[in-house]
Amino acid sequence: MAAANRLVVFIALISLTSSPALATDGKPLQDYCVADKGGDNAVPMNGFACKPPQSVTPNDFTFSGLNKPGDTANPAGFKVTLVTVDQIPGLNTQGLSMGRLDFGPGGVNAPHIHPRASEMLIVMEGSLEVGFVTTLPETKLITKVLQAGEAFVFPQALTHYQRNVGKGPAVAISALDSQNPGTQRVVAAVLGSNPKLPVEVVAKALQADNNVAAQLLSKFK
Known about the structure:
Layout: H1 3-17, E1 35-36, E2 49-50, E3 78-83, E4 97-103, E5 108-113, E6 119-125, E7 127-133, E8 141-147, E9 151-154, E10 160-164, E11 170-176, E12 184-185, H2 186-191, H3 199-206, H4 210-218
Antiparallel strand pairs: 1-2, 3-4, 4-11, 5-10, 5-12, 6-9, 6-11, 7-8, 7-10
Helix pairs in contact: 3-4
């Protein structure tokens, strides 16, 4: 995909998801509200308090690193580089975050949900199989194979995944309509909680016996 075309699609993606009308975090009431983390004395709130305007700098609105490939040398063959309010304090109250997704051959971004955001993903390089599962009673899998330059939407809080089905690496950019979308991996939530879910509960959920459930639970430390 030509660099100019990638830039046009990328700008359109960001423009769409940064619209106050579409952002799930609500409409900001000022030009900006750079997050003041406050260290150990920070007051818990929905979002962050505003940094004093006189101490705001361009660095509060800047992130470097999305041009660097993520390390996919791991069991999943996948790495995400997130850019949320934790990386750019100026995202506070703006209802927007994004990420770079790198996939090695056969790499998988395992089924997960973003409880506070819908997501739009655009493939920049390679081929990705993407999909999400609707809620009960249908639990229908909506899936498609995307090529470079194609985009796909994952509705808010629905279980979804991506898998590299090409012969080489794949790269995608995602934009989410929350400064802090959150991520919960489905399998890890069931088998890797702290403390562990009761074996009997996992066994019933998986329609398996207790020994199988205990063995699966033991794989997540």
